[in-house]
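Quality-control log, excerpt.
Job 1 of 2 completed; input and output follow.
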Amino acid sequence: MEYLLHLLILIGIYAMLSQSLNLSAGFGGMISLAHAGFYGVGAYTAALLSVNCQLPFLLTLPTAMLLSGLLALIVSAIALRTIDDYFIICTLGIQVVIFSLMNNWMSLTRGPLGIPGIPSIQLFGLAIESKPAFLLLTLFFATLIFLSLKKLTGSSFGRTLRALSEDEIFTQSLGKNVYLTKVIAFTASAMLAAVPGTLYAHYISYIDPTSFTVDESIFILSIVIIGGMRNLWGSVIAAAFLVLLPEALRFVGMPNSIAANMRQIIYGGILIFMMFRCGKR
């Protein structure tokens, strides 16, 4: 039961990450490989403030969101002046820089040693320590993000975002501020990524840079693509599929000598097949 609850919590975290990325990559057409970096900024901000300053969750969460958003705002001033493949390469560079800071800023992040002893979340005097309680909290934030994005993407801002992803020049000719719309979407996407980052830090109680690598950014982007661009429900379903698939492969009977490698090969093959099918649609 504990194992199942753990998987459900991870699904909730990745559903939030993929939905937040869907705002910029799906609705705005800005494919980013820096999302794990913003996720990590949220996690490290919450961890450092709660461990070093003993700040409560209700303060660390908005602070993590603001810091992640501020970083995305600075980054977007440069990255969004590029287009298409150049934008992707630029966000890849940003991801590498963020990871390098996490891995080498020993005085702040403790580098590869990570940050242990992150306290559990305290809400109104109640400690969220059990997995059922944390799952409820995760579902609350996942639902809040889903409803917020549903409302945002259905607004005039969302329609402008869709239009510029289809034809940026035409959208600009209609008098829309394309650059500002992109900056807002990219910044909001990063701010929302800090929410699961904060939850993850408190849930695991220990973080290190290996959780926020380029591979993690690619994994989050894979969820968005498999679930469908501009499809928020699809992100939830794809998150569940990609989180549960490696676990399901553990129960495939194979000799111990080749089990680990074969699971990776099968998982990779299924992922390639799914990406190919999604690309054909």
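Job 2 of 2 completed; input and output follow.
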Amino acid sequence: MKKSLSIILLIIFSFVFLNISSGAETKIEIWSWRSQDAEVWARVEKELNKKGIPVKIDFRPFVPTEYDAKLMLALQGGTGPDIFYSRRFPGGRTQALIDAGFIEPLDGKVKFTYFTSTILKSIRSGGKTYGVPFAVQVVGIFYNKDLFDKFGLKEPQTWDELVNICEVLKKNNVTPFFIPGKEAWTLAMQHAMCGVSILGPEWIRDLTNGKVNFLDPKFIDLNRRLNDLKKYYQDGFLANTTTDQDAAFAFGQTAMVFYGIWGFQIWRQLNPKVNVGYFMVPPLTKDRKPYAYVYMDGAFALTTSSKNKEMALKVLEFTATPDFGTIFSNITFNIPAVLGAKIPEEPLLKEVLEVYRKNASPYVYWVGSVFVTQKPSLYDDILSPGMQAMYAGKITPEDLAKMAQDGISQWYKPLMKKK
């Protein structure tokens, strides 16, 4: 009897010991609006497993326009992920999640050694740090180099030169620009990237300080220039999506797109031979410096409802290292937020990185600006629907300017009318 009991105890001990030593995997669920990051997390899982961290990463991407609503609903119901991609803050959507107590501060839990103070400012609220930044995005005009070479075109130095390029392309039956007008956020982005060069950082600074407002003739002129440009867009552009855009651009069905560097990974996957160039939206005159709209894309946030916080923190600790930045950049062709990463030997990425370092506009009015921190937001509630309406001919450039002034002056004190 004693011998049998000893054998049973030995079996139980061996089973428990083997399971502990083998490190039974802990599943970490990660939610995102970036479907292109799936391979990143597959690589991260392998790297962590190699380091003896037995994690299984369940990466779940959602449609970008549906992501925020689904995330909020899940967190309110206590069924959200362990880690999620948060938007830039303070202010806006992520601030609402912080105020609701859904995000765990990471101070003292993750080392932020490899991040600049500027980057860290975009993930701090109330003196606490609420995520690990993952990418710096640069937006502008991406173009098909082969089509430009075919018609002897060069990167424009002024807005008029850009319009002339469109004329040449249109006369040769080439669609100058493909615009995904069904996705309103891309139109707000287009407006903002044009604004940093056409209006200039000084004007945006004056807007922020209340020295000018959205009814200023320069803002109305920008609206008018964009509205005039629509004759160079593809037919029915207000019904097209970014998926349509990516396919058209990758296969040379259009010459240019207003977009971000994150699109390069998708274009390369669709057509490995695609030859892509980049330039900033040109200013009105050659004596003015062009600028790029640059912003910190978001961060990896830990939910307070995570049932696997210890393992989730191990994942987050890794994302704060140059090793993660190298994996991220080499797969996505994005600029990693973490310092010390090795970016791929890709000329386009190096050019965009140089633009980020030398031509980033210090003042902006889209993502990362004060004008999107409350409701109505210049991004979600004004420029997105307003640009669609203007392009559809339902409102004028002057009406769009009035929408912006009326909306933002409801809550932004520098733009309120003085009595």
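Post-run check on job 2. Residues 8-22 have pLDDT under 50 and may be disordered.
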